[in-house]
What we know:
Blueprint: H1 8-16, H2 18-27, H3 33-49, H4 53-62, E1 78-82, H5 88-100, E2 105-107, H6 117-125, E3 127-134, H7 136-140, H8 142-153, E4 158-162, H9 171-177, E5 183-184, H10 191-204
Parallel strand pairs: 1-2, 1-3, 3-4, 4-5
Helix pairs in contact: 1-3, 2-3, 3-4
Amino acid sequence: LWTMTFDDDVAKEVKSSKALLDKLEILSKSSDKAVRSNVKGLLYNIEQRCNKKVEAENQYFAEEKPSKFKTGKQQDKHLFISYSWKEKEIVLKLKDLLQEKGLPIWIDTEQMRGSTLQAMAEAVENAALVLICMSESYKHSPNCRLESEYTYRCGKEYIPLMVQKYYKPDGWLGALLGTKLFIDFSGKYQFEPKWNELIKELQAHKMLGNEETKQETAI
């Protein structure tokens, strides 16, 4: 149902059903953290697609516990990594290598269920740059789509990375990619040249200094 509500017409139809909304509101207070998180994501999606973005943020973010992640003036602008858990192996490898470069990273290593909607929103809002790790599972994940669309709405710069071999983004993910060139970490090409491409992109976005331009073995 959450995935279906990314369609504006479906979101409006769900919004018009008081009986369904009442049941969803009850589920949003479930003792099961995963259920609670997913239903709140669904409700937030419905509200913002029905042109009530501010009210949605206030209603569904305020109930969450404060984020454990520092934001705003408390933390330097970080690099936000948006990915599907299925591709965690290559994504976590990239995360470790980027941290070795001294970059502050925000990444959810618990499949979104370990963090709240508020934590995600704050992380995107306070990001200097977003890495969007594209794959088929990413496209079909409502959590990933929420992160991507929020990145776009916030006007954040993002770098698309391909993390599934031979995958061709279509639908909403293809539209998000547009004419942007992606960096291919799917295993189709050797890792080091693609790593150096990413380093150059990070330099262009002022995330790294020019001293990183030297060719080096990242593995």
